[in-house]
Amino acid sequence: MAGSEVAPLRVSAFPAPGKQHGGAPPRLAGRARDVLVFAAGVAAAVLALLGSASVLGAPGSRLVAFPVPGPEDGPRTFYDDPELSYDAVDGRRLTGWDAKRAEWLRSRGLGRRPAPERVVMVSGSQPEPCPGDAGDHLMLRFLKNKLDYCRLHGIKLLYNRDFLQPAMTSYWAKIPIVRAAMLAHPEAEWVWWVDSDAVFTDMDFSLPLATKYAGRNFVAYGWPDKIERKSWLGINNGVFLLRNCQWSLDLLDEWARMGPAFPEHGQWAKVVLSSLADKGNSTWFDDQSALVYLLLYNWERLGKKAFIETDYFLMAYWLDVVDRLDGVAARYEAVERRMPWLRRRHAEREHMRYAAARNAAVSGAVPGPAGGGYKGWRRPLITHFVGCQPCSGERNPMYSRESCDDGMRRALGFADDQVLRAYGFRHAAPLNDSVRPLPFDYPARNN
Ligand SMILES: *[C@@H]1O[C@H](CO)[C@@H](O)[C@H](O)[C@H]1NC(C)=O
Ligand SMILES: *[C@@H]1O[C@H](CO)[C@@H](O)[C@H](O)[C@H]1NC(C)=O
């Protein structure tokens, strides 16, 4: 999959304030209310300042003024520590996170133990418009696909379009946002990074978080033979899971320090590029090479908590799956024609029950693992358009425009059909943007 060696995202200044779209001005009533709310806020802040001056304001005290917690905010937490930094580069190292998180959960009445299946998905794209033809339209479709999966599975989606740390450019930009997401979501047990050019192609599959990944803190898709050869393509970090814990913050810190925001970056580039088997002549030091190096050369220390998924397509290389999606859809339909209960129409909120029933039905009838794999005809969980560069259009020259464009549209349409089902529609054909209504008892009846 040398296909991922492509031009990095372009970075430029943020748009000038004047260029941002402004909506219609707020209605007067809204504005008046805002003024009132603002005035109340000022009063509270003044009180807080006065309070802190008299109570906490001893010279040299580290406790500077913070807004007095209101009764609904609960007791003080790590958020009230003025030294807490969301910054992966310039901030102070965060320690004791597991205890801080547990304390926050307790103080907010969210239980003694975190819920293993509480997930925040994080994805994102560049701050500027996409330079490629229809790039923004494709990014919208990729985002819609993630919204669909998250809505069906009760996952929160955080979509970021800012470089939180300007020096952490291109692919490195995911590190600061993943770290900030952990701090902003102490209720989430997992942060799930998904590249913008990855498509959910199985709306039914749920990650085995509480079972297979219990006791693990990092999960990514990989190829053991490539890891064996010390290839930078041994794992693909376009999709990965990090448990929201101190171990993960430490890993992010260690990984970030290899990045372009740190003076050691050049030194690390030499070490990593010469240590990995297939980077010998390259000067392109990316975040994936850094992560593969970190894991490979520290497996004794990190391996116990890391998990390289190989059983199902946590991330499939698109060329391995897109031509088979029509065959996959046909096999799922054949199963539904035999099983009337799977054809029953239902509310979207019941999706997970039907997903479980469909999974049980197809596991006996359609070969291959749930979540998809190299063998068989199960739906791949995620199809990753490595090298297609939908935003910039600067495809890796080894792929044709048609193969990338058709592949992306086929995968997105394949996913949309699974979602549209609950609304009574599907696409007229795999690459057709028109929809047609589904008859009652579809697919036993087809028109
Ligand atoms: C690196 O470059 C040398 C000389 O140009 C070449 O012989 C070798 O095959 C290259 N190695 C890789 C890994 O591309
Ligand atoms: C898409 O399907 C509609 C409805 O069946 C049909 O009228 C239209 O010609 C199709 N478009 C293409 C590009 O095939």
UniProtKB/TrEMBL annotation:
It is found in: Golgi apparatus membrane. GO terms for cellular component: endosome; Golgi membrane; trans-Golgi network. Its main location: Golgi. It holds the Pfam family Glyco_transf_34. The keyword Aminoacyl-tRNA synthetase does not apply. Keywords: Glycoprotein, Glycosyltransferase, Golgi apparatus, Membrane, Signal-anchor, Transferase, Transmembrane, Transmembrane helix. The keyword Cell cycle does not apply. The chain crosses the membrane at residues 35-58. It is a single-pass type II membrane protein. GO terms for molecular function: galactosyltransferase activity. Belongs to the glycosyltransferase 34 family. Probable glycosyltransferase that may be involved in the biosynthesis of xyloglucan. This is Glycosyltransferase 6. It comes from Setaria viridis (Green bristlegrass).
